[in-house]
Give the backbone structure.
Amino acid sequence: MEQSVQSNDNSYLDIMVQSLTKKLAVLDAIEKVNMQQKEILEDDMSSPDAFDKTVDQKSEYIDQLDQLDSGFDKLFDRVRELLETDRESYRDKIIQMQELIRQITDRSVDLQKQEARNKELMTNRFAQVKHRARSVRANSKATTEYYKTMMKSGLIDPQFMDNKK
């Protein structure tokens, strides 16, 4: 019976390690999407649709992270007491999970920096677009005014000429 309980607990711990490993992989995928977003934001010729696709991808990855976190928390609640009372028996798994959590934390900090950088790039990009829109409106207005003026100057009021000498 004792062997069966420990085997079950080891299975839970294995699943928790897998969950952390998957989370690390998802964070790597988010990092790649962040790099794509950076390239898109730095390219003046890129389309908003390309950026929207990356936002959708990132949203899917975030949903995966939420599911992984939820599953991990549920498993941890099941084995928490056991880990607290018999740490030595599960020492290797605990060390493995701690290392994965450390890597996840480091990756999360890097992602936050990337997000801040991309936000700044996005702000700059919006400012450029706004400036271009103003410029186009101003040029359009100037062109319209020019044509109106030219059209009026083309019409010469009838004049009478005195042909007498």
Remarks:
- Residues 1-5 have pLDDT under 50 and may be disordered.
